[in-house]
Protein 1
Amino acid sequence: MNGAPPPPLAEARGIAKRFRGAHAPALADVAIRIAPGAVTGLVGPDGAGKTTLIRILCGLLRADAGELCVLGGAPAAARAAIGYMPQRFGLYEDLTVAENLDLYAALRMLPRAEREDTYRRLLAFTDLAGFRTRRAGQLSGGMKQKLGLACALVSTPRLLLLDEPGVGVDPISRRELWAMVTALTAQGIGVLWSTAYLDEAEKCDRVCLLDRGRVLHDGPPAELTRRVAGRVVGLAGLGGQAMRGAMRRARDADGVVDATIAAGSLRLLLREGAVAQSPGALGLGTRAGFEPVAARFEDAYVERLGGGARGDSALAASYRTIPESDRPAIAAAGLTKRYGDFTAARDMAFTIARGEIFGLIGPNGAGKSTTFRMLCGLTAASAGSGTVAGHDLRRAAAQARASLGYMAQKFSLYGDLSVAQNLAFFAGAYGLDRRAARRAIGEMIEIFEFAPVLGQNAGLLPLGFKQRLALACAVMHQPPVLFLDEPTSGVDPLMRREFWSHINGLVEKGVAVLVTTHFMEEAEYCDRVSLIYRAEQIASGAPAELKATAAALSGRASAGMEEAFVLLIEDSDRRRAAEPAAA
Amino acid sequence: MSAALRPDPARLDPRRLRALLAKELTQILRDPSTFLIALVLPLLLLFLFGYAVSLDTSRTRIALVLEDSGAAAQSLAQAYENSRYFDVALLRASAPAKELMVEDRSRGIVVIPQDFSRRLARGTAPVVQVITDGSQPNTAGFVAAYAKGVLGDWAAARRPALARALAGTVTARPRFWYNPGLESRNFLVPGAIAIVMTMIGTLLTALVVAREWERGTMEAMIATPMTMAEFVLSKVVPYFLLALAAMAMCTVLAVTLFGVPFRGSVLALALVSSAFLLPALGLGLFVSTVTRNQFVASQIALLASFLPTFLLSGFLYEISSMPAWIRAITFLVPARYLIPPLQTIFLVGDVWPMFWRDSAIMAGFGVGFFMLSLRATRRSLD
């Protein structure tokens, strides 16, 4: 009212933290302010110190140095007024939704008289009212997250700390969560939202960008975005392989900080002063012209962190060229999986050619992973057939498996073995002889820069390194077909670019890739995608075709893949609801 | 600083504690693996020790070398052959008897020497040689004891006739007090109860706290106003009760099914087992607080509690026959102070001074472990 900003709920200055045995500090001289009635975003690459900072703010860790004032005192003293949702939600899977709420209500000293009202309000808010007696372990990922939020909100905190609430959750659940949290800020609650999704960061009132324990930016996201304004250009009219090739060359070009594929066109972030260059000058070899595009927070983020990944993949360079073949690399025909009377995947059908990227997208629990697992021979199909590199999964499962590389959604390497031991194990498991194994391991160490972490246990690596190692283990035997299940879930944008550089490179060598992803902008890297919802393929085709279908549905031009995703799913729901009426 | 960070960790709020206890109990009831460890495993162990494992010698094979053909020697040989403890191979010379033992076809040799009858007639005490297989000390002990027992019984039966011949000679007649039938089951079953309580007390507690860390719930718990004392109590009380229930179940089964006597009082049993549960639960808590990993916690719990209870508590192997340095180690094994009172309660009766002393020692261990785990939890996430 008087124009002055309200005093912050939490304020930290000069926070430093170093873990025992670590060679670099987790946090160094970090300052942050969390204002009431606003969402403060906390972004940064893997291992930047986001979780450590949140844990210090809620009193789970003690800072080595610095001043910290949370709700007027030490965090521990304010614990009753701090709501905290850790990365893994902190739910008891054996307890029901209501029992989890009961526990947190009692621990947070919610007066008994207010309990019923609070539960009703929170369950309606999180859309969980129908699931009171369901055990938390049987909820979907998105529902678990909402319950985690409800538990953190049970005594109406003044400060809400959320540690990467969007990881592993589909776009619809993420939108719902975001809407819930912004509704809270209207009540004056201050929210700290840590995230790897920069579209979320962009929507925050204020953003704190951390990298290797230091603050690189603290202020409204638009402030950072302004720094790259006018330097982002788009190049439309390319498609599929041509687009990926252009992106690869652009990434290695001098005047380009970052190159991605977005909204069906090649998107470049140019270095300052490089604005005037033509596509030809960038070695893109095309006559089409650049169009200026609105800068996004992600552009600024990537520039602030030193630019995107290189275009040339060392992995692809060392990979063999997969011979041409008239058989499809992967084929699914009527693949169906039933568990009792529950159908997890129904009638999946698609073929993937050599050198093609095929994406499976869809909400959590829709049947993506089931389809995936049937095709790599991890579960037997109830009906239908599938082939991998021409080998039938039922008759020649062993050959089919030998010709594919698989990267699981969850970390599936040996956490108690070192990086070197994991590499050696997988080389042996894929039947590489001693010389081939030694060469392959040496290459992987060089390509993925494992040298400094060779002796470290894989389980203790930062997430980005774990994913690199998982990819290395999946491609050591140079298979013609790659299965990647959520390879970039929870990984920061820079790492995701590196990953896709490798994938694009491999595809140019003729590898066929089947990938599942939650990141809708990653769907743009695919030649074709299939949207899976309620165990069925509700839409398939090139990303541009899906977006066109969605645009036709909504009657307006939809720009992003994410919007198309939401529209197509809503349409499927509408048709499903109309079905009984029609019958 | 530490006080500011976690204000008054010992404070207890009844409502929070009740909620935590309710949560723990619900989890126990819904988790089949807890039930398996708490109820099925004890039954399995009890039946194993009650039926399958037996240290009794039922008809041990021995060689009897009869060098004397006198009437008295014949009658003694008869006594051995009639004994229900032995399966006798009757021989005339000692060389083949030795062979039998080497070939593992006999566990001992009893030699009735040439001059047996003569010495008996002369009134000099006759000598019977008992040779046992020292490579199996347990059996060797039984063979020696029972061989002597048969001799004693034989002598007693002939006492009227011997009275003159052996004027003044006293024959030792062993009597086995408290466990007259010398049934090993009677001391194995109380021991099995100790094992069961170690299992529930240490193994289960070690698993449940580590599980909270593994599943990420610990982090969310610490971030609430819950105090560490509330958390620790919520982990201790349910498993304390569960262990006592398992103990009661085992006791009832031991008495009804296996016919083990119960000569002490229920009160004494409750006292010593409660006292033992303190170190058992404390160790479990400490292990799992430090490791934060279920697999490692269960391995350490096994090494730190289960095996010592099995091997070093005097349950299977007598402490007095251990080498001195191992004997010294046994003083650090809490179960060492449980087994004797337990066996006393079952087989002898209430010996309160012993119960108080051993209970106090066990409680002391318990307090030590709890202090260690409280210290370990305070530094929580660091």
Protein 2
Amino acid sequence: MIPVKIRDLVHDFVTRDEEGNLADKKRALDHIELDVEEGQFIAVLGANGSGKSTLAKHINALLLPTKGQVLTCDMDTADDNYLWEIRKSAGMVFQNPDNQIVATVVEEDVAFGPENLGIPTEEIIERVNDSLKAVGMSQYNASSPNHLSGGQKQRVAIAGILAMEPKCILMDEPTAMLDPVGRREVLETVRRLNREKGITVILITHYMEEVIDADRIFVMSEGHVAMQGTPREIFARVDELKELRLEVPQVTELAHELIKRGVPMPASILTPEEFAEEYCKAATGRTRSSAAEENRAETAYNGDTDENCAGEPVLSLQDVRFVYGENTAFETVALESVNLDIFQGEYIGLIGHTGSGKSTLIQLLNGLEKATAGTVRFLGEDIWAEGYNQRQLRSNVGLVFQYPDHQLFEATVIEDVSYGPGNQGLSKEEIRERAEWALTLVGVDKKQWTMSPLELSGGQKRRVAIAGVLAMKPKVLILDEPTAGLDPAGRDEILGEVDRIRRETGMTVVLVSHRMEDVARFADRLVVISDGHILYADTPREVFRHRDELTAVGLEVPQVTQVMQMLNRDGIPCRTDAITIAEALEALQ
Amino acid sequence: MLRDITIGQYYPAKSCIHRLDPRTKIVGTILYIVSLFLFRSFSGFLVVGTAFAGVLILSRVPFRYMLRGLRPILMLLAFTVLCNFFLTSGEVVWQWKFLKITKEGLERGAFMGVRLILLIFGTSLMTYTTTPNQLTDGLERLLSPLKVIHFPAHEMAMMMSIALRFIPILTEEADRIRKAQMARGADMESGGPIKRAKAMIPVFIPLLVSAFRRAFDLAMAMEARCYHGGKGRTKMKPLRYHMADLFGYVYLACYMATIITLRIWLKI
């Protein structure tokens, strides 16, 4: 059996006007040829809008070819008689964990597929138990999906597919909405299923770290397969990948840059360990262990000591405690004895995984939530003092939430951005002026100002959402995971824009993220929060020294920092506190 | 937190009433409601009350939970009772200007009040002992004979269970949207009803858009899992009558027989 065989596949998205005439035709897939062998772990990479999800839907017969042929498990998807057999053989896991769980109890959801197939009751029960066991969710069989984490919900979704006994699992960006912990859970689960049960896996993603142990990678761009090969073959082509709005793991890029500068290293390094090994060989002509014995000198970098910010803090939290659902059965402490001062013009990176209390913390800063105990001050004034103007505070401390879809509602982009200033009671001219200023600042093209926000791409929506808050001219800008769900290039663009805005306006920025690499590049200070406590509040350099402590709370230091620390342990004298690729390069030359 | 809100008011306990087939409980509740309207004198309540108390004790649901169920209808209850007090004509026992209370009014008011309370008790007991899922399943099966006249019993049940699944999710989302707009200076707390309704638009539209997107996603996910309507579908937990249900139906039959007999012979 051949799991997937695609020949000359073309797909056009056709929009028709009211009379049924052709209004618009967009080519989503352009002459695709693709073969997958049984038992393989396949990764399909591509930027947003490259056609990778459309491709997955073809394999599952959710879409049918405009031209060409798709064979799933030797069955033609265009043949109606095979429809259910195809969907049973090639199960599909989608991006949003909530939007694919049908039932209110975990085990009943897993049973949904087999029930549709008309499997007898006894066998359904058996299949449900086996599937939940295979994804490690047996103890949650009677739980409500609403009480599970994102990673757990995706594992339930995988179990739901397994219960149909598929030969192949398609995963359409299953980790895009998860935090690092959830992402690891899901990937480990599918890898195990691939290895132990021999199920063919097709993983669609734009996270490169997820695909380093795939058997074969297909890179999609503008509807066609731009590259294919093993991870090593693909990752050696760093510059080409960047042109396709993708990236490679930090260590791969670092190796690539070193090669350019004449260091003899293999072109496709995939992990920090491998990098350390190869660099040792290249630099000393010896293997890691033998080098380590001779040289144990540690050179710490003593350069830039960050000047401490003096003066009055903009925002200040004192002994803050926050309890959800006080005096109910669901009472949970979200924050405990939190002290934090944020100074004018600072760029703060707020790091912590889901449930650590970081979302609560930022909502305390603009008064959306009230601390159970302790005080929150803005420019020295207690924001919960009697008669304090809360709405004024919210325009001074601008908060952009994670999903732009939660705030965009007007018919046009410019009207939507005008909503904030409109609430400030400004004159029409001023509102317009501010909206235009904000949109220009975030780099939204004038042509898009009159479009509906719903027509925009993910990255553009995010810009409009940020502009909607900037238009109120806040003194502090708080961004909650502004890059979630964007492809690597889109992510870099947004982060670059935030940094530019901050330099141009002198605004104080608080960026919430769980990607260490992102915050390391821009933030002056990192605030690491775990389990409701502030663990560290220091420069990225200082924070990343505590690698083991960070790992213990489920966070990872950037790959370059890992590499430098490894090299140093192995006796290569170099600074251990490099936090960006540029710094590491400088140190290794 | 918001995701903990429960729809309905299931009281988890292990009792023979909890274990009864939902169909038995639905049929029982309907018959119980009918029985409440079969008699016109207080003595009837004695039979109903005894029968109900028996089931309540078996169900292990504390009586205070029954009282809690009355809270939302307190206004309606007071209104019904008072209307009967004041608006029934007959022998006047108390009068103040044009307001008068009659002996018949007092009787009628008390009768109506007790009837309403017992009605709520009965339906609450069903929702306390049956999860919303079981109720949906039960309704689907009870209504399935109507498929002959093209009544969409399965579709209706599926719709209900999806709604149950998404109510907490959308509630949480509405809260997040509200906060996102408040962060942009939205004022949802002050002003008259029209201003407040207008202030809801920025919350309502993103929520609606999101609900549509979720509907689209879920439909696609269901199709990918081979959903094609109720035809040929099996169940992981099919409804099966057990011995207890037989007792349940026998109990119901005895109860109805008693009420009807008393109505005919003693004119209660």
